[in-house]
Amino acid sequence: LTREGFSSVPNEKWEDIGGLDYLREEFKSKVIGPIKYPEAYKEFGLASQMGILLFGPPGCGKTLTAKAVANDAGANFIYIKGPELLSKFVGESERQVRLLFSRARACSPCIIFFDEVDGLSAKRDMEGGSGVERVVTQLLAELDGAQGVIVIGATNRPDKMDGALLRSGRFGKKFYIPLPSFEQRFSILKVLARKKPVDSTVDLRAIAKACENFSGADLAELMDEAGFAAVNEKLSLDQSLRSILARHFDIALSKVIKSVSP
Ligand code: ATP
């Protein structure tokens, strides 16, 4: 948290994300637009959404989405894990939160991405002030006065979220990012295939069908495993091999185990 130069505009773009077009539209009108064209939004009496919560199973694009939002808006991006803000020293947690927001304001427009925001309450039960209550209070205060700072929170466990944070209305918009459907898996595979020499004969639809309940991260792993299978074949058998073929995906499918149970 105290590192210098820890914020920058991320490189991830909407084109790098498969299957979440509806989210892109929401973010464009509620977050990116107000950052890029503040006057126009003001004219229509519209303010930017300051806090947004993304929830859903791991590896389905929450971080990717937040980074693409920052990239599109030309905003700096600060990644922070909720629990990192907790300190057992009195006053230290609040100080960290204040520091975080003052840095964000200094490089606004800025998006603070809070991974594992649920972690700000999971420790509430722990004996000895973990500082949760104070962190949440400080966070709410900062959210009120944060000019040009947008907070995107992410959690796999919305049920574990701190009640005060949810009730406050600061996270005014909540979006569920589920495990991808068949069509979404197909979109994700197409996005991932652009970064590798996947042969044009490979039927990505069929692969999408075979990958029920795979997360985006699982599909990325599958694509890598197919690449490894192809490279192995090239180095050990056939030096003329130039692309990833269906048989390499078969090998990959036998290796990748889906990480999220439905
Ligand atoms: P976590 O809860 O574990 O932090 P997350 O939802 O933030 O998960 P990401 O970090 O966005 O997940 O995704 C992990 C990786 O999985 C990405 O870097 C990307 O390779 C791949 N991935 C996940 N979802 C998608 C998607 N919708 N389109 C393309 N790639 C995806």
Automatic annotation (TrEMBL):
<protein>
    <recommendedName>
        <fullName>AAA+ ATPase domain-containing protein</fullName>
    </recommendedName>
</protein>
<comment type="similarity">
    <text>Belongs to the AAA ATPase family.</text>
</comment>
<feature type="domain" description="AAA+ ATPase">
    <location>
        <begin position="48"/>
        <end position="181"/>
    </location>
</feature>
